Amino acid sequence: MIERLLGTSQFTGRHMAAVMVLFFGTIIAVNFTMAFLATSTWSGLVVGNSYVESQRFNTVTETRERQAARGWSVDTGYEDGRFVVALVDREGQPVQGSKVTAAIGRPASAQQDRTLTLQPLREGGYGGETDLAPGLWEADVIVETPGAESWEKRIRFHVEAAR
């Protein structure tokens, strides 16, 4: 009875071949799945031509140092379909009279990128209407003030799911 339950068949070459096919098949399937997921969400490119970008490094660094010397700070928020930017100077006073744009998109994909021209808000700051899905977003905020160099800041923010 026990022999019948446990089986008396032997482990044959066919069994070993099946075990090997299942083992390596699983590994290959997981590798293909991971490769597909990795390449379908991000191209891996940060810049189009790294040599050209390296030539601009010193210029970009100097520009960022001048922007940091202004002492401006920015805070962003998103609620009820409205993206809001609060921009203050070194003394904590709101920066007014500027043209503010925001290029908003996902950090790992260009599929949902959009550019907003933000309007001055009565309560201070600048805002614009857009629909953003829950998750991590990135905004490149560009402030153009008459008679001054433009000011840029890249900000990551998180949009919560609607409750």
Account of the 3D structure:
Keywords: Membrane, Transmembrane, Transmembrane helix. It comes from Aurantimonas endophytica. InterPro entries: FixH, FixH_proteobacterial. This is Nitrogen fixation protein FixH. This protein folds into two domains: 2-41; 50-159, Sandwich (Immunoglobulin-like), CATH 2.60.40.3760. The protein is built from four helices and seven strands; from the N terminus they run ααααβββββββ. It has helices at 2-6, 13-41, 50-55, 57-70, and strands spanning 73-79, 82-88, 99-106, 109-120, 126-129, 135-144, 151-159. A seven-stranded antiparallel sheet has the order 1-2-5-4-3-6-7, with no helix packed on it. Strand 3 (99-106) and strand 4 (109-120) form a beta hairpin. The longest helix has 29 residues, at 13-41. It is elongated. The model has no long low-confidence stretch (mean pLDDT 88).
Which helices and strands appear, and what pairs or packs with what?
Blueprint: H1 2-6, H2 13-41, H3 50-55, H4 57-70, E1 73-79, E2 82-88, E3 99-106, E4 109-120, E5 126-129, E6 135-144, E7 151-159
User: How much helix is in the residues?
Assistant: 25-40%
Q: What fold name stands as the CATH topology of the largest domain?
A: Immunoglobulin-like
Question: Termini distance?
Answer: 61 Å
- Number of alpha- plus pi-helical segments: 4
Approximate shape: elongated
Overall CATH class of the largest domain? Mainly Beta
How many domain modules? 2
**Quaternary status:** single chain
Transmembrane segments: 21-45
Organism: Aurantimonas endophytica
Keywords: Membrane, Transmembrane, Transmembrane helix
InterPro entries: FixH, FixH_proteobacterial
